């Protein structure tokens, strides 16, 4: 009996260390992040761009970055690079009432465009709860985790959302999400709000959904111009940047598994409200997305 108890204990310890090696460093407690910092007020002095080879926040390359090409795109030419991107989402068709439509994802003049439209939908879509609106989504073909991810983007000037995020875990028993930004460019009361949220929907020991969100209030209207948005994904800390300056940091307790990089636009009637039809079509544009790894491109 003692031998069986010892064996059971050993098995549990091995399981704990295996899960920890795969990224779950808090298997026993599944604790929530407690070390969180949010910027209040303006950014202050922002770094100057001297090279495109490194993140705006680290132009001197103190972290020894190496470009991660599978998640980097300058959107040159007139067509989306289908070797890097998949249009739509195989696991979701959009937040009702807007349906993701492939035609709303385009590339022109060196930019990626995601458009929201007011238009009649086919009966088969209406039977699923979609009606009168289409939006857009695409994701990278590869998944990734630790690194630095930077986009230069301009949110759409309507109540439709403009979002840059990571999701769709393939690690067994895990379901996580990182919303680098969700912006309602012309949604009443949200014009200056930069929303950043971390989600957990499942772990080996917990199945209920929970999230850790934060907001930075920009001194400008976010949909008025292009700005550089960055995300530093570290093993111990997650950092969110605007124009090269940190606006939020959260200890990394759960977000270790590789995820797709996603751009999308949605109707969010319970959050941003529905967009005014007179503002449609509206477009969320991305000038580039660049990704780096520390010391290795693998």
Give an overview in words.
This protein is mostly beta strands. About 10% of the residues lie in helices and about 40% in strands. The protein has a 17-stranded mixed beta sheet that branches.
Key features of this structure:
298 residues, mainly beta, 17-stranded mixed sheet, 2 helices, 8% helix, globular, disordered N terminus
Q: What is this structure's SSE topology?
A:
Blueprint: H1 2-21, E1 36-38, E2 65-67, E3 85-87, E4 98-100, E5 105-108, E6 111-118, H2 123-126, E7 133-144, E8 147-154, E9 161-167, E10 175-184, E11 193-202, E12 210-217, E13 227-233, E14 237-242, E15 245-251, E16 259-265, E17 282-294
Parallel strand pairs: 4-7
Antiparallel strand pairs: 1-15, 2-17, 3-7, 5-6, 6-7, 6-17, 7-16, 8-13, 8-17, 9-10, 9-16, 10-11, 11-12, 13-14, 14-15
Helix amount, in percent?
Answer: under 10%
**Kindly state the mean pLDDT as a whole number?**
91
The count of DSSP E runs of length 2 or more, i.e. the number of strands, is 17
In this structure, how is the largest beta sheet organized? Answer: 17 strands, mixed
* SS field, number of helical segments: 2
Class by alpha and beta content: mainly beta
What distance separates the N and C termini? 47 Å
> What global shape is seen?
globular
Determine the strand fraction and express it as a percent band: 35-45%
SSE string: HEEEEEEHEEEEEEEEEEE
